[in-house]
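Hey Z.,

So I finally got round to the SGN thing we talked about over coffee. Here's the setup:
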Amino acid sequence: MNTFRNISFVILPVAFANYSCGQQPPKAPNIIYIMTDDHSYQTISAYGHPLSKLAPTPNIDRLANEGILFRKAFVENSLSTPSRACLMTGLYSHQNGQRQLGKGIDSTKTFFSELLQEAGYQTGVVGKWHMQCEPKGFDYYHILWDQGHYYNPEFKSKNSGGKYIREEGYASALITDHSIEFLEQRDKNKPFCLLIHHKAPHRNWMPEPQYLNLYEDIEFPKPETFNDDYSTRCSAAHTQDMTVSRTLQLNYDLKFFEPQKDKKKNKWGHEFNRMTSDQKSAWLDAYTPVNQDFVDRKLEGDELVNWKFQRYIKDYLRCIKSIDDQVGRVIEYLEKEGLADNTIIVYTSDQGFYMGEHGWFDKRFMYEESFRTPLIMRYPKMIKAGTETDALVQNIDYAPTFLSLAGVQKPEEMSGTSLEPIFKGKKPENWRKSLYYHYYDYPAVHNVRRHDGVRTERYKLIHFYGEGKMKDDKDVDCNELYDLQNDPNELNNLYGKPEYEEIIADLQATLNKYREDLKVDEY
Ligand code: SGN
Ligand code: CA
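And the result:
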C-alpha cells in the first residue's frame, strides 16, 4: 500500500516545502470535512438561488471562489444516518446496513477513518454522529447525543466516561470550539482529518441569540412550485406529510410560543426550558412582539400559509448565518496556523432540503431539492480558484476521495469513486453517466413511500413501491419520469407517454443493471 506511513515524518515538511507548480502534489494533505444537517444548495449564495441572494453566505462562498463548486452533487438516500454511513464506508445503504433513520449500520464494515488512522493520520469527529454505533477510527471525538440540541447541548467524548455532558452555549459555536480544540491538541507531526458535523440547520431551526431578529423585515420569495398540485404524479406525493401549510407545527416549528402554557413535556417547552434565563429573555424580546402581531392580524388562507413560510425560511436562514460565521472561524484558524494551503476543506450537507418547493420542508424524495446537496472543496495545491463542475457525483465518493488524497489504496468493496480526477474541472471521458438512488424509511415520520431510481444528465426515472403501512395508505407500484432539461422543476411526469417509450426503456435498463450489479434486494 502506498501509505503516508511509507514516508518519514521528519522529511515530510521538507517535501512539502519543495513542492512547486508543475510537480506532483504532495500526498497526505490535511482534511477538514464540514457537513451541516439539512443545508439546501438553494441557501448558499455561491449557487445563485434567489433565496440566498437575500441572505448571503460569504464564508462558504469564499470556499467556492477559491476552490471548486459541484453543481451536480447528490446523496444516495436522502436522510441523516444513511448519509453518514455512506460517508464513512463509501457504500450504498443496502451494503452498509443503514437504510433507515433508526435502523442499523453494519459496524463490521471498514470506516475510512480507520484506514486514515492506520496510514498515520490523526482523526477527529465533532458534532452530530447519529449512527447506531460508537465512532470508529477516531483519535478524538466530541459528539452530540442523537440529533442533539441547539441550546446547551450534551456531548460525549473519549474522556467523559461514556456520559453525555451538557455544555452552555449554542451548538454551531460549541462544535467549532471543540473542532479547534482538536486542532490545537493534535500531534503536529502528523496530518489530520477532522469531520465537523453541525446540527444546524436541522428542524426545528432555532437561531442563535444575536440573530433572532435577522431578516425580520425581508419578504422571502416562495418557490415557483410552492402550489404544486401533484396532478401528474404517483400517490406518494399526495400522501406525504411534510407540507409548510399543514405539517409545520405553530408552536414547535414556528415559535409561536406561550411560555405559561408550554410545559416541559410539549416539544417546544422542552427546547425552551433548556435555555438559561438570558437566552430565554433574548427569545422573549425577539419573538413576543412579532407573535403578538400575528395574533392581532388573525390571518387565514393563503396569508396564513405565507406567514408560516416566512417564519420557517427566516429561522432556517438565521441558523445558516451562524453556520457561515463558524465556517469563517475555521478558515481563519487554518490561515493563522499556516495550514490553509495544505488542507482540503470540504463543505457539504447530509442531504438537501425543501425550501417550500412542492409546498414542502424536509427531504427524503428523489426530486432534486433533497436528492441534490451543496458540495464545495478548497485545496489550492490541486484545485484552481473558481473551478466549477457538473459531473455527477455522490456521497459514496467521499471516502474514496479522502483515501486517494492520502495515498491510501481504496478497498475493493467500496462502491464510490475518488473525485480527484474532477478537481481540474474537466470531466474524464469515462466518468459515470448516471446515479442510483434508494430511499427506504417507510413507515416513518413524514410518510414518504419507499422508492428507488436512476438519474442521468437529462432524465430521472423513479419507482415508488411497497405495501401501504400507515393510515389509509395503499400498496404502491408506480413510476415517474422527468425530463430535467425541459422541466427542471419536475412538474410533468412523462412516464407512459408513447413518445418516451425508447427513453423509458433505456432508463429502465440502466436501473435494472444497478439493481442487479449492486445486488439490491427490494424495489
Ligand atoms: C426528526 C425530525 C424530522 C426529520 C427526522 C430526520 N422531527 O425526526 O422532521 O425528518 O428527524 O432528520 S423533529 O420533530 O424531531 O425535529 S435527519 O436529518 O436526521 O435525517
Ligand atoms: Ca439531515
